[in-house]
Automatic annotation (TrEMBL):
<feature type="domain" description="Tyr recombinase">
    <location>
        <begin position="503"/>
        <end position="670"/>
    </location>
</feature>
<feature type="transmembrane region" description="Helical">
    <location>
        <begin position="423"/>
        <end position="445"/>
    </location>
</feature>
<protein>
    <recommendedName>
        <fullName>Tyr recombinase domain-containing protein</fullName>
    </recommendedName>
</protein>
<keyword id="KW-0812">Transmembrane</keyword>
<dbReference type="InterPro" id="IPR002104">
    <property type="entry name" value="Integrase_catalytic"/>
</dbReference>
<feature type="transmembrane region" description="Helical">
    <location>
        <begin position="42"/>
        <end position="62"/>
    </location>
</feature>
<keyword id="KW-0175">Coiled coil</keyword>
<dbReference type="GO" id="GO:0006310">
    <property type="term" value="P:DNA recombination"/>
</dbReference>
<dbReference type="InterPro" id="IPR011010">
    <property type="entry name" value="DNA_brk_join_enz"/>
</dbReference>
<dbReference type="InterPro" id="IPR050445">
    <property type="entry name" value="Bact_polysacc_biosynth/exp"/>
</dbReference>
<keyword id="KW-0472">Membrane</keyword>
<dbReference type="GO" id="GO:0003677">
    <property type="term" value="F:DNA binding"/>
</dbReference>
<keyword id="KW-0233">DNA recombination</keyword>
<dbReference type="GO" id="GO:0015074">
    <property type="term" value="P:DNA integration"/>
</dbReference>
<dbReference type="InterPro" id="IPR013762">
    <property type="entry name" value="Integrase-like_cat_sf"/>
</dbReference>
<feature type="coiled-coil region">
    <location>
        <begin position="236"/>
        <end position="401"/>
    </location>
</feature>
<keyword id="KW-1133">Transmembrane helix</keyword>
């Protein structure tokens, strides 16, 4: 490979070197001085560059490569709570698992006892760890981290021996699983033993309390758990009910007696049937007398014997009624007094009997309360015993459901590539530092070795660039511009050098091509893609609709250099809308007319300015075509097959492109990439 292909900046340096040589005066002393200055600069740069580069590269490549192995496990800690058989209670017993439980298991994974077992297993397998404290070495190598929002733990091991790293992680997972099962078995066995002991202790307590209750009942004369069934209580309740009735009766008798003494209704003897009969007979006699008085005159009444007899009988009846009323009132009052006295005697007798029974009731109440307390205590102990039996049964039935689960999500494999260091990146950094320090050393040396000011400045001749491929172009052009830069303008050259140093079009870098395509869209990006595939502006505007097949990814170019080209996939989506059939222009304006090369140059200029490229005004269709040809030539394409991709360049241009081609045998078109990376990157 030539120096130009290895370093794109060499043509620029060569051109600048020739320009500087043209500026130097032709006297021998000046030439010698310039050579001495250049030699001094080269020696200073080479010395500093090598002094920094060689130790840096030795440090870089002598570092041992470190590998990293990774494994992932899912840890589901077993539930430490009981799970009842009934669904309702089971819902209450379930609880969400907290993040602290998983973090606890992460700490257990990197604990020293576990790492000591892993170190012993590695030593047995023939992969011992260096150093006396193998567990500490493993702790430095292995790290564990819980994946947020999941039950997954990621284990990483970093070291210089890939096989040892993978074996250490896999053995760590296996040993952790065995330890987890063993610890669970111990905890589960202890829990079952405790539950069984508690159930047996409560059953013995229930038996003792039941015997105590029975003994108390027997000692209390068969004390019934119901208060109403006791004879003393029943007697007191009956006496109390009788006392209430007797008190009410005494109150009624007392009220009646007071009413009789006050001359109320009862004092008139209204309840006496004899008095009532006599009053009825008197009323009948009075009615007969009034009937006769309505019939006869008073004189006749005084003379009539029957009338006299009736009046006499009526007067006698009234006297008898009055006497009977007095007798009846006295009898009623005496009866009321007798009733009141009897009611009061009954009340006093009942109160005396209740007082005599109060001691027996109090004694019964005390014994009943004590019996009730013993029965309640027995009921609580029996309930606790039943719960203990149920808990023991659930523990025995749910051991497997509470077993902690460890699922291996991803096993640790032997890493094939080093994790660090990045030798290439660090080497480039060392190279950059050495190069920068070399340039800094040159600047520092030249700061104290400034040449004297020249007495007179040499004449300067500015060479105007000529069109690429014109008659002034020569096959031996050495001032070819590097990608992304304009070709240098020769100064101080003789007129005869003009034809040999006419500069070619500018070559864009891949980054500039990406920016140019990104700044365009639609039809503009489609046109740029055509030019970057090696088409001239005239060939692009001459394309028809039938010349492009986006589905198949090919483009047919007509004219003097007919060829069939591969197109990137993204050009099918940017195909411009057209009017007409397959013979209609592929690139046309809104009216359906064929675009002109000036229209293409306008689209290209807009994209260049929008992309912010340097010297955007100098970018035209020839620049894009030249960039495509340079890309093909730099890959080592045979010049005989160049015409099948971009047309036939002129002999002068071929001489220039020959300086870009690498040394050695050239490659056929089937072994190179016809599309530059920038074109393919747009579809990624």
């Amino acid at each position: 490979m030539t120096a130009t292909a290895d370093n794109p900046t060499m043509p620029i340096l060569s051109s600048l070197r020739r320009s500087l040589e043209l500026d130097i005066t032709p006297d021998q002393d000046g030439v010698s001085q310039a050579r001495r200055i250049n030699q001094r600069r080269i020696r200073v740069f080479a010395t500093v560059f090598l002094l920094v580069l060689l130790p840096g590269l030795l440090w870089n490549f002598l570092r041992p490569a470190e590998y990293r192995a990774t494994t992932r496990v899912q840890i589901s800690p077993g539930s430490t709570e009981l799970r009842p058989a009934t669904p309702a209670v089971q819902v209450q017993a379930e609880r969400p698992r907290t993040a602290s439980e998983l973090l606890t298991q992460v700490q257990v994974l990197t604990s020293r006892p576990l790492l000591e077992k892993v170190a012993a297993a590695l030593g047995t397998a023939g992969m011992p760890l260096p150093g006396a404290d193998a567990a500490a070495r493993l702790r430095e190598m292995i790290s564990a981290e819980a994946v947020e929002g999941t039950e997954v733990v990621e284990l990483q091991a970093t070291g210089t021996q890939p096989e040892q790293l993978a074996a250490a992680l896999n053995k760590l997972v296996d040993i952790y699983r065995e330890d987890m099962k063993a610890s669970y078995g111990a905890v589960a066995g202890e829990s079952l033993a405790q539950a069984r002991q508690e159930a047996e202790r409560l059953a013995a307590t229930v038996q003792a309390r039941r015997q105590r209750v029975e003994a108390f009942r027997n000692a209390s004369g068969g004390l019934s758990p119901e208060r109403d069934e006791n004879e003393a209580v029943a007697r007191v309740k009956g006496l109390t009910a009788s006392l209430n009735a007797a008190t009410e009766k005494a109150a009624v008798a007392e009220a009646r007696l007071k009413a009789l003494k006050a001359g109320g209704k009862g004092a008139t003897g209204a309840e006496d049937p004899t008095l009532a009969n006599m009053e009825a007979r008197a009323s009948q006699l009075a009615e007969e007398i009034r009937q006769m008085e309505r019939t006869y005159t008073p004189e006749f009444m005084r003379m009539d014997p029957r009338a006299k007899q009736l009046q006499t009988r009526f007067a006698e009846m009234e006297r008898q009624i009055e006497a009977q009323r007095v007798t009846s009132r006295e009898n009623t009052l005496q009866a009321a007094q007798d009733d009141y006295a009897g009611a009061r005697a009954t009340v006093d007798r009942l109160q005396a009997e209740i007082r005599s029974q109060r001691g027996a009731v109090q004694d019964f109440s005390q014994r009943f309360t004590q019996a009730k307390t013993l029965e309640d205590d027995l009921a609580q102990i029996e309930r606790a015993s039943r719960e203990a039996q149920e808990r023991l049964a659930r523990l025995e039935a749910s051991e497997k459901s509470r077993l902690p689960a460890l699922s291996l999500v991803e096993a640790a494999g032997v890493p094939l590539k080093p994790f660090r260091p990045d030798y290439m990146l660090d080497g480039l950094i060392v190279l950059g530092v050495a190069f920068s320090l070399g340039l800094l050393a040159i600047w520092f040396v030249e700061l104290f070795n400034r040449p004297p000011q020249a007495a007179a400045q040499a004449s300067t001749t500015v060479i105007m660039p000529q069109p690429w491929g014109g008659p002034a172009a020569a096959p031996g052009m050495a001032g070819l511009a590097a990608p992304g830069q304009d070709a240098p303008v020769l100064a101080g050259a003789a007129p005869g050098l003009l034809a040999a140093h006419a500069r070619p079009p500018r070559e864009l870098s891949q980054e500039e091509v990406v920016d140019l395509l990104a700044a365009s869209s639609g039809e503009g990006r489609f046109v740029l893609g055509l030019l970057l595939m090696g088409l001239t502006a005239e060939e692009a505007v001459a394309l028809s609709q039938g010349d492009f097949s986006g589905a198949d990814g090919w483009l047919r170019v007509g004219g003097a250099a007919q060829r069939r080209l591969e197109t990137p996939a993204w050009m099918a989506g940017c195909r411009p809308s057209a009017i007409g059939g397959s013979d209609a222009p592929l690139l046309q304006d809104a009216a359906g007319a064929r675009l002109q090369p000036a229209d293409i140059q306008s689209m290209l200029a807009c994209a260049a300015f929008d992309a912010g490229l340097s010297s955007a005004g100098s970018i035209d269709a020839e620049v894009l075509r030249h960039t495509c040809i340079a890309w093909l030539v730099r890959q080592g394409l045979r010049f005989a097959e160049l015409g099948g991709l971009v047309g036939r360049p002129s002999p002068e241009a071929l001489a220039i492109y020959a300086s870009l081609a690498p040394e050695g045998a050239k490659l056929p078109a089937t072994e190179i990439d016809p599309l530059m990376p920038a074109l393919r990157a747009m579809g990624a």
